[in-house]
Specification:
Helix content is 0%, strand content 36%. It has 84 residues and is mainly β. A 5-stranded antiparallel beta sheet has the order 4-3-2-1-5, with no helix packed on it. A hairpin with a 2-residue loop joins β3 and β4.
């Protein structure tokens, strides 16, 4: 686990769910923390080629496999489909 503070403006990765029809695969996207709720969960603005997505507070992803609709700290190695 990362010991960085979760504060507004910090860069994280959002795990996009992907589309049911498979046109958009499940993948990690760059996101910025816009708020942190009382439970310590961040609300995010997510950047993707299709546009911006604004989320309500989201849970932290488990190390592996990553579930869509969660966030995690950026790592040095991203690749493949991270989702379950």
């Amino acid at each position: 686990m990362n010991d960085q503070p979760l504060v507004i403006g910090r860069a994280v990765h959002y795990v996009a769910r992907g589309s049911a029809d498979g046109n958009y695969p499940c993948t990690c996207r760059t996101a910025l923390v816009t708020a942190v709720d009382s439970a310590g969960q961040p609300a995010l603005v997510v950047f993707s080629p299709e546009g911006l997505f604004f989320s309500a507070p989201l849970p932290h992803a488990e190390p592996t496999p990553l579930a869509g609709g969660t966030w995690h700290w950026p790592s040095q190695q991203e690749g493949g489909s991270p989702c379950v």
